[in-house]
Amino acid sequence: MRTEHPLTTVPLTADLLRGALDLERTAHGLLPHRLPARARAQCADGQLAMAESQPSGVRVAFRSRATVVELDALPTKRIYVGAPPRPDGVYDLLVDGDLVAGESLAEGNTLTIDMATGSAETRPGPAGTLRFAGLPDRDKDIEIWLPHNETTELVALRADAPVAPLPERGRKVWLHHGSSISHGSDAASPTTIWPALAAALGGVELINLGLSGSALLDPFTARALRDTPADLISVKLGINVVNADLMRLRAFGPAVHGFLDTIREGHPSVPLLVVSPLLCPVHEDTPGPSAPDFSGIGEGKLRFVAAGDPAERAAGKLTLTVIREELSRIVRQRAAEDPNLHYLDGRALYGEADAARLPLPDNLHPDAATHCHIGERFAGLAFAPDGPFAGRGA
Asked: What DSSP element (H or E) covers 236?
């Protein structure tokens, strides 16, 4: 029987975190960011600031013999006026790659958002403590995956044995960018967002730049992808451009070319996979913007509708059908000189048959079961013997 040892505070340093591109020292501790400071300084959009500070795919990772680990954290929880309450974020504990626990914190700041007016109000709250006990008494890899949907400041880490950074395991790094669906939307936990599931199945290390509402072909995001070391890259483009009614067809094509050009400046020959939008029936042939439908709020349901007019396609407004055609054309054109550039139709991940079985609850975002489905599909296609990432996993 192992003699219990007192807990010792472990300094929270960059080598104990994976999946973050930047770390900010705050009054409370350490705030992981998924975009670098220079990128954040180039956009004042509150949605982007919230999304990139939510640590989707970010984990505290170390090797230790510890049987007890404690993490003090200060999450920021979102409250949407008139919408059903959101569940608390989950902290998943993995030991040697196996999920052994998932815990939540009731404490934290609150951010109240009024979608009708666009206003937001933050109220401070206390930090909380997560305690993981009864871990195996042996040297092991320990990962604490942070909530994918709650901005989380790391306040303190404690363990009852020495802690060291995880050694390199020879796994390839997969860098992925996408929308709220890649960010995690309504997945059950951080290790069950579809990119995390696909990464586990493919045997690769994930850096997730899925940014809710913010996959908008921003040049600073392209530069972040360019400057981040990676062995595999995928970009899932299109749905947010329609959601936001951001641009017309004339601007979209050159913007995609510029986005890919920038990535290729830093990764000239890395396998690069362009993924078009999943099936989203409300926007297949109807342009954006997307608008909240509050008619079901009394029953605890919030849905989104397409507020555009299908006739506006003639004026260059974008639909998902138009975007898939354009992305396919662009990749075919570029692949003639770039053999490591690939295209995947998002409907291969979630198409009409899938929508009949697993409909999108709010018309835009997949639920937990659908995240599992998409993750398995992506891994089966991307890491297949004839797939774009073939032979690149563990």
From this structure: strand 232-236
Q: How many residues does the chain have?
A: 394
Q: What residue type is assigned to position 134 of the chain?
A: G
Cα–Cα distance measured from residue 380 to residue 289, given in angstroms and rounded to the nearest whole number: 33
Residue 89 CB: number of other CB atoms within 10 A? 26
202 exposed, middle or buried (CB, 10 Å; 0-12, 13-18, 19+)?
A: buried
CB atoms inside a 10 Å sphere around CB 219: 14
- Report whether the peptide linkage leading into residue 289 is cis, meaning its omega lies within 30 degrees of zero: yes
Distance CA 175, CA 228 (A): 8
Identify the H or E element spanning 354. Answer: helix 352-357
Q: What does the angle CA 257 – CA 258 – CA 260 come to, to the nearest 5 degrees?
A: 65
Predicted TM-score (pTM) of the model is 0.95
pLDDT tens profile 287-332: 999 998 877 766 667 889 999 999 999 999 999 999 999 999 999 9
Q: What is the pLDDT of residues 155-194, one digit of tens each?
A: 999 999 999 999 988 999 999 999 999 999 999 999 999 9
